[in-house]
Design goal:
Part of the binding-protein-dependent transport system for D-xylose. Probably responsible for the translocation of the substrate across the membrane. The chain is mainly α. The protein is built from 16 helices and no strands.
Length: 381
């Protein structure tokens, strides 16, 4: 029994993403059975992915914050504040949509800069900075909106959260994505061979490509069966691609992991740790802006309650997706898989009319289990 348990932990540690994908398959299968097939209808599938996109945007930024050994509890309130400001700029000042987006994203970056300054240069614990922001940003939001919903926003802004790509464009982008995956896979094999590094068997990479291609085709088929690829999902996929490249192919990305793995050694090696942490919080602020704009667009209104407990969903998504709370380990893809698990639980239990308190209990239990697995497997990048 003990041997089997250790074996299970080893499998989870080595194949976390595969384990998470299996968990999603089980969750989807269970909810599909319990809802009589309604869970995986094209319409609900599209709604599920649009719902997941907002949490995914927060999780994509939060994963780097946690990898660097920090935490940000203000992201839910900041999402609400920036979304409310987007609604005010659009409804009351009638600014062009491009100007509104640029101003809100710029403001998100500036607020993230302020948070990072307190953490990196004033050495205030990120937990305290985030907690202060959680209360302050929510208070500012209530002040600027007078505690009431700001609606209705323009159709151009609504399109960001409720729009869909034309069918041919969606299929074309899916094809381009698959071609890029094939190109990067064989390019990586060529570089490893040139550097005399281990190259996995060809059949292994081909199997991964075939499986990935089948998943992409399945997603596109489901989207096209309803109205096409939702724009928020497209934005999230672009973020996934850019952040994955940043994490794996840039000096900045490697420094983030190094800081979380061994802060003192990274500092002694000449890395400007303060600057890196500052930029991480700027990135988090920008992600809050994207999530806030998408939330306002999806609701067609700026709500004073938008983003409530969003920070908990973002952190939970990262942890469930394999990001270690000890820092130094985690991936953007894993965080987004965690966000999909969280959104699937919310969506499925809502369809089953499960009481709200039971939904919170289930998500809390899953978060605790994910942290326990991280601790017992001792995962590190």
């Amino acid at each position: 029994m003990i041997f089997a348990f250790k074996r299970l932990k080893d499998v989870f540690s080595r194949y976390k993403i595969l384990t998470l994908l299996l968990a999603i398959s089980v969750i989807w299968g269970l909810f599909t059975y319990m809802t009589g097939g309604d869970f995986l209808t094209p319409r609900n599938f599209s709604n599920l992915l649009r719902q997941m996109a907002i949490t995914g945007m927060l999780a994509a930024g939060m994963v780097f914050v946690i990898i660097a050994g920090e935490i940000d509890l203000s992201v839910g309130s900041l999402l609400g504040l920036l979304g409310g400001i987007a609604a005010i700029l659009d409804l009351r000042f009638h600014l062009p949509i491009v100007v509104t987006l640029m101003l809100v994203i710029g403001l998100g970056g500036l607020i993230g800069l302020a948070n990072g300054y307190w953490v990196a240069y004033q050495r205030v614990p990120s937990f305290i900075v985030g907690l202060a922001g959680l209360m302050a940003f929510r208070g500012i939001l209530l002040g600027v909106t007078d505690g009431s919903t700001v609606a209705p926003v323009s159709g151009a802004l609504v399109l960001v959260g409720q729009g869909y790509l034309p069918f041919l464009v969606g299929k074309g982008l899916a094809g381009v994505l698959f071609v890029l995956l094939v190109w990067t896979t064989f390019r990586s094999r060529k570089r490893h061979r040139a550097l005399l590094l281990h190259v996995p068997p060809l059949w292994q990479d081909l199997t991964k490509l075939v499986g990935t291609g089948a998943i992409i085709a399945g997603f596109i088929t489901m989207f096209d069966a309803y109205r096409g690829v939702p724009i928020p999902v497209l934005i999230l996929l672009l973020i996934l691609g850019l952040f994955s490249i940043m994490a794996n192919r840039t000096v900045f990305g490697r420094r983030i992991y190094a800081i979380g793995g061994n802060l003192e050694a990274t500092r002694l090696s000449g890395v400007n740790v303060q600057q890196v942490k500052l930029l991480i919080f700027v990135l988090m602020g920008v992600m809050c802006a994207f999530a806030g704009i998408t939330t306002t667009a999806r609701l067609a209104a700026g709500s004073p309650s938008a983003g409530s407990l969003g920070e908990l969903d973002a952190i939970a998504s990262c942890i469930i997706g394999g990001t270690s709370m000890r820092g130094g380990s985690g991936t953007v893809f894993g965080a987004l898989i965690g966000a999909l698990i969280m959104a699937s639980l919310d969506n499925g239990m809502s369809m089953l009319d499960v009481d709200n308190f039971w939904q919170m209990i289930v998500k809390g239990a899953i978060l605790l289990l994910a942290v326990w697995l991280d601790v017992t497997t001792g995962s590190k990048r």
